[in-house]
Every structure is written in C-alpha cells, then in structure tokens.
Design goal:
Strand order of the largest sheet of chain C: 1-2-3-4-5
Number of domains of chain B: 2
Chains: A mainly alpha, B alpha/beta, C alpha+beta
Largest sheet of chain B: 5 strands, parallel
Structural class of chain C: alpha+beta
Radius of gyration of chain B: 22 Å
Shape of chain C: globular
Number of helices of chain C: 7
Helix content of chain B: 40-55%
Largest sheet of chain C: 5 strands, antiparallel
Radius of gyration of chain C: 20 Å
Structural class of chain B: alpha/beta
CATH architecture of the largest domain in chain B: 3-Layer(aba) Sandwich
Distance between the termini of chain C: 59 Å
Largest interface: A-C, 45 and 49 residues
Strand content of chain B: 5-15%
Helix content of chain C: 40-55%
CATH topology of the largest domain in chain B: Rossmann fold
CATH class of the largest domain in chain B: Alpha Beta
CATH superfamily of the largest domain in chain B: P-loop containing nucleotide triphosphate hydrolases
Strand content of chain C: 15-25%
Shape of chain B: elongated
Oligomer: heterotrimer
Order of helices and strands of chain C: HHHHHHHEEEEE
Number of helices of chain B: 12
C-alpha cells in the first residue's frame, strides 16, 4: 500500500518545480537579450571614462596589463618667451607662439577586454577618486622627467615622451615602457639609502645605492658601490652585473668583459652571458 | 465494495501464469521459432534477453501448449544442487521415483539415455540457467549430446553471460533466440490486450498514445517494469476512486497519477 | 540543455573591444593597419572619443591624412577631445596651405599657426620662415633641433591617374627614411 496523500504532496512539489523552471527559462530569454543590448549601448557611451585619463597618468604600471602613456596635457596659453633674443639686441619681436600637442588617451586594456558591466556606483566612485587624487596627480605630473627634445618657447612636460618622438622621427623604438620611478634619481633617495647603509651595512643597500647612481649617470660611483656590495656578498649576481655595466659605461669595456667572463666561468649565469654580448657589441 | 481499479491492478501483478499470456506479434514470432526449433536436430536452444522481456512467459506458454503432444518437462526454478538436478532429470525421464538416499550416477544416467536413442525425444525447459554452475552446464551439454534430450535454456543477457554463452556453446549446434524489450507499438498492444482480456475495454481506450510514450520512456518497454508501473498507477487510481473520486475523471488517463506513480517508483527525481 | 545556455550566455559576454585592438595596433606603431581598422569600425565607435583620438593619431602617421577630418569634427565632448581636434585641424590646415603654396604658388608667409611636433608642422614652420633651399622645385629643409634630419618637399604629378601629390621625404643622416604622400 502506498501513502497516496504523501505522494500527492510530493507530486505538487514536483509540478511546481517544473513550472518554475520552465517559467524561469522563458523569462531569462528576454532578460538575456535586454541585458546584452544594454551592455552594448553602455559600451558605446564610454565618455565618462575619458575623464579618468588625467588621473590615470599618475599610476605606476608594474604588473597589470594597463599601459600608461604619459599624458601630455594641452598647452594653450600664449607664452612670451624669446627664442633668439640676444642680450645686446634691442627691440626684437617677441614671438608669440601657440603650440598644440595631441592628448593621447589612456586605455585600460584589462577593462576593454573584459565584460563591461554597468555598475552605477562605479561612476560615483570615480568621481570621489578623481577629487581625492587630482591634487596629488597634479603635483606628480610636474615632477616628471622632461624628454630631451625641447622648445624653449614651451613649458616643460608638455611634449610627447621619448618613445612618441622616436616613433615620429623613426628612431630605434623604445619597445618597453619605462616604469615611472619617481624615487630613482632624486638626491633624497640616495641620501636616505646611504644613511640606511651606514646603519645596517647590508649588501642590498649598497647595491641599491649603486643602482641609483647608475640611473643618475654617475657611473664611477655606481662602480664603487656595486664593488662594495660585491665585497659584502660575493654571491650577489646583480652586484657583478652592475659593476660590469658601470665599467662598460666608463669606457673600460675590456675590463668589464673580463670580469663578466670570470663570473660566468664560476656560475654559468645566463644573465652574465647576455651582458657580455651586450658589452661587446656596445649596447649598454 | 471493491473498486474496478483493484481488479485492474491485479491484472498487472507480475506472475508467470499461462492465463496472463498476451500474444503480441513479436512474441508470437519468437514462439514460433522456439516451437519449430524443437523439430530441428538441435541439442540446445538458447533463449536470452534482459530480465522482464518475457522469457519465462514464453517457456511457460510453450510447455502448456505442448505438454500433451510430446515429452516435455519444465524446470521453472533452477535446481542448483547437482544431485537434485540429476535426480529430477532421471525421474522425469523414467517416471520413477527414487528413494531419497539414493544418488543418481551421472555415467549411469548417460548410458541410460543413450539406450533410449532413436526411441524417445525428451525436451527439458530450463529457466534461469545463469545460476547453474559450469560443471552442471557441462553435464547438461553431455546429456544433450546423446540426442535423446533437448534443452531449451534461458539466460539473462548480461555482459558475462554473453561471453559464457559464446565460450561454452560456440561449437554446439545452437538456435539462439533473443528477446528484447517491447517498442511503443508493442507496448500499446500489450496493455490494451491485457486489459481487454479482463473486460476493461473502456479503460484501455482511455490510454492515449502520449501516455504510452510516457510509460515507454520510463519502462523502456520492459514487461516487468511496465507491469510494476501499471500496478502502481492503478493502485493510486484505486485510492482516489474510494476516497476522493472527484479528483479523477473517467475520460482521460490522468497525467497527474502517471507522474505520481513515476515519483513513487523513482523514475522521476523530485 | 545546460551547455546551450552556457554557450549562449558566454557569447553575449564576449565583447571584442575595437578600442583595445586599435590601441594595440597604435602601440605597435602599425599606423596604416590601425588607420584602416579604425576606419572600418568607425561608425560603431563614433561616440567613443578615445577611439576617435587613436584613429586620428594613427591616420596622421599615414598618407591618409584627410581621414583625420572626421574625428576632428566629432571630438567635442571633452577638453582633451577638443584639444586633439585642434591638433588635427592644425595639421590639416598646414597640409592644405603647403599644397596651395606649392601647387598654386600662394604666398603663405607671415602666418602664425600653432606648432606641433608632427613633421609636417615642422616643415610648415620652416617654410613660413623661409628656412629652406630650393633646388629643381624641391624644397630642402634642415631640422634645426635634430641636425641629422633633412626634409624634402615637392610636387609630383601622376599622369596615369591625373593626380597631383605633395611628397614629403624624410632623410636621416642623408639616408632616405620615410615618405609621406599627400593629395
């Protein structure tokens, strides 16, 4: 005998489940279509993200796919700076020159290649973020390293970066974008690390100092400090490489190669090998 | 007062009964082959198929049809003890009862059979032979070699049995009859005939082709499963008929009850 | 059944971004490809100012300079967009003026247009200041800032197509480097 009442209840449960599932399936079709249409429309209206470009320029790219091109903001104001005015010449016309440079947009590649979900609170978050960091961003833009090609009529940091100029004038391309190392070459940094080293006497700090001097262009000091780091820890590969690089920069190519070769003999390091080739070819 | 559904329900009680035999085309076809094989010089006939496809029913039907015409014996249940088996064989052939303590010597039996060669032809129907041991099967084979005894055996169709069947009996002159599950058409006929047999014509008309398809989806055309399913269905019908007759209409087969029965038997997961 | 839904769902999610492709091409400095790609999907992305900017910047580096006219007129929503529009406008104007000067011999001295770092602007500035040497109808300029660069500007007539081109050749260390061909 079967408990028919119970069975009937079970049946109602089963039936309701069935109906619900079929309803939800039917309902999801228009939702899907609507959702995808909406997403598509939002994708077309991407103007508010453009405003982020001024803030994004301050982010340091390290791990993410996000590529940052230095933003060159427009210089519209007229500048009265004489180019060829000599101190003795009188009443030379001060040329008023207007310079226009393109503003290359910042593209968030991660975002572009993912699904764009409409999140309204994101917009408000952007506004908050914008306000918060705009001031900071402004300060950092001014501290940027100015590229070489310069017109004296124009304020610094207004030009395209090295790579952009290189692309225009077909120079050997800067393929990798440099990390914007705000601390790398400031004198404060060197002093700080120097102090640290005096306290701790660690080879790592010495190596950092050496790197800082190398980046600054002070190759003799870089050489000295990398040697010091090496004396403290002879297994520190970087100290070897940096020492050799600094030497090569100072023109002592042969010595540099010798050092690298002896290091390579000991350790069979691939980096050393690569560096040897570079030094030989003069590609440092 | 018992509901008509109770009677209906009992139609579908699973039993190997000659009364319950339903003649379908496919079944008749197999039956004819089986019957004709008895006249062929075959030693053994293998009837195999999945459980619930009607092997026992077929043997049963054969036995009842032929028992008056020829020497035929039906072992419905397998006799697993070799001793008992040989005893039964001998007793069936000789018609004599052997005292309980006496054992039948196989060689003696063999010789006995060989003596009967040309005079008699005895048919043994053995059901559920997958349970017999290999040794016993060998003896059965040897007995059939005498050409005095014919064996019709049934097996469940499983992977192993298939292999065994081939291995052991490959070289024998065999008739192999395979029984399979019914298709939708046969299933419909089966249900209709079963009900009409007992006089439930209007009930059999209630079942639509869609219902048959639904039933077939679950039972896969297996007679045993179908019997079980229909039994459950009519059991539920019986309950409603007695307690809540307003819930069932007399015109169409209730899909609700079909689903309820399916839930109960586990065909549908809830 | 389930798999169909997953497929359907995922297909709506997978949006190939034209902007990212365009940017990648621009980054790789495949300007011609970028310009053509941008032109192909222009209509779909015309409301995206970043897209328009990149498209314009790519086409500036090609011979199809005239294409920057479209984004120029459509970049107007943001300040950066307007700045870039002015940039494109300046370059276009400078190209037109040079064409007039070379073909129609129009006098375009004493004009003060904004300067850009694009080579055509440099040449224009030098032209205005008459800092060139003329030889066989070829104007030769020397880049004061980058002494290794020399520019040659001249008119070329294609008799087959009956077209006139203004050619700007860039030489680096007296070796031919790049050519811009404008109509």
């Amino acid at each position: 005998m079967i408990n028919t009442k119970k069975l009937e209840k079970r049946w109602y449960k089963y039936k309701s489940k069935k109906v619900l599932s079929s309803l939800s399936l039917v309902a999801s079709i228009p939702i899907l279509f609507g959702g995808s249409y909406f997403l598509y429309m939002d994708y077309l209206k991407r103007d508010n993200l453009f405003l982020l470009s001024q803030i994004d320029q301050t982010k340091i790219t390290s791990n993410t796919n996000q590529s940052i091109l230095t933003n060159v903001s427009q210089e519209k104001s007229l500048k009265e700076v004489s180019k060829d005015v000599k101190s003795n010449s009188s009443h030379e016309e001060v040329k008023e020159e207007l310079s226009l440079e393109p503003v290359i947009p910042i593209i968030d590649m991660d975002k572009e290649e993912r699904v764009k979900r409409v999140v309204r609170h994101k917009k408000s978050y952007k506004k908050v973020y914008k306000k918060k960091h705009y001031a900071q961003a402004k300060r950092q833009v001014k501290a940027e390293v100015i590229p070489q090609v310069k017109k004296s009529t124009v304020q610094p940091t207004q030009y395209l970066t090295k790579s952009e100029i290189a692309t225009v004038s077909r120079e050997p391309q800067v393929k990798k974008f440099k990390k914007i190392n705000l601390h790398g070459t400031s004198h404060n940094y060197i002093e700080t690390i120097h102090k640290k080293f005096l306290k701790s006497n660690k080879p790592r700090e010495a190596l950092l100092l050496a790197k800082a001097y190398y980046n600054k262009g002070d190759y003799s000091k870089a050489e000295a400090w990398s040697l010091k780091a090496n004396k403290l820890d002879s297994n520190l590969e970087e100290s070897w490489l940096l020492f050799a690089k600094a030497k090569a920069k100072l023109g002592k190519k042969q010595e540099s190669v010798k050092i690298l070769a002896s290091y390579y003999k000991k350790t069979r390091s691939s980096k050393a090998k690569v560096l040897i080739n570079k030094v030989k070819r003069g590609q440092i | 007062m018992s509901s008509k559904f109770e009677t209906l329900k009992n139609i579908f009680v699973d039993s190997v009964n000659q009364e319950n035999y339903v003649e379908l085309d496919s079944v008749k076809y197999n039956y004819d082959i089986l019957e004709s094989s008895l006249d062929k010089p075959l030693k053994m006939v293998l009837l195999f198929g999945k459980p619930g496809t009607g092997k026992s029913m077929l043997l049963n039907q054969l036995y009842h049809n032929l028992k008056s015409k020829r020497e035929i014996h039906f072992f419905e249940a397998p006799i697993l003890s070799e001793k008992e088996f040989l005893r039964s064989i001998y007793e069936s052939i000789s018609g004599r009862q052997i005292p309980a303590k006496m054992r039948v010597n196989f060689d003696g039996l063999l010789k006995f059979c060989q003596k009967l060669k040309g005079e008699r032809e005895i048919v043994f129907l053995l059901d559920e032979c997958q349970l017999y041991s290999e040794a016993l099967m060998e003896k059965i084979r040897l007995l059939s070699d005498t050409r005095v005894i014919k064996f019709i055996i049934t097996l469940h169709k499983t992977e192993n049995e298939d292999v065994i069947a081939k291995e052991h009996f490959k070289t024998r002159i065999w008739e192999v009859i395979e029984l399979s599950n019914a298709n939708e058409y046969d299933l419909e006929l089966y249900l209709q005939k079963k009900m009409i047999q007992k006089g439930f014509v209007e009930v059999s008309n209630m079942i639509s082709k869609k219902n048959i398809k639904y039933i077939h989806d679950f039972t896969k055309g297996n007679f045993r499963e179908t019997n079980k399913y229909l039994y459950t269905i009519f059991e539920i019908y019986e309950y409603y008929d007695i307690n809540e007759p307003h819930k069932i209409s007399g015109k169409k087969f209730s899909k609700k009850i079909l689903e309820m029965a399916a839930l109960k038997l586990g065909y549908i997961n809830d | 059944m389930k798999s169909i839904w997953i497929l359907f769902f995922s297909s709506t999610m997978l949006f190939s971004s034209h902007l990212s492709t365009l940017y990648k091409l621009y980054e790789k400095q495949e300007y011609l490809k970028a310009c053509d790609y941008g032109s192909k999907y222009y209509t779909k992305n015309r409301k995206n100012e970043k897209y328009l900017t990149l498209y314009g910047l790519s086409c500036v580096e090609t011979n199809k300079l005239d294409r920057i006219a479209r984004p120029m007129v459509e970049l107007k929503k943001s300040a950066d967009g307007r700045a870039n529009a002015s940039y494109f406008g300046t370059i276009l104007l400078q190209k037109q003026l040079l064409l007039q000067a070379l073909i129609d011999k129009k006098e375009i001295y004493n004009l003060h247009l904004p300067k850009t770092s694009f080579v055509l602007s440099k040449v224009f500035a030098l032209f205005i200041d008459k800092k060139y040497s003329l030889k066989d109808d070829i104007y030769i300029f020397e880049d004061s800032a980058k002494s290794e660069f020399t520019y040659k500007l001249y008119i070329k007539k294609d008799s087959k197509n009956n077209r006139t081109y203004m050619i700007l050749d860039i030489y680096k260390n007296d070796k031919f480097s790049k050519r811009y061909q404008y109509e």
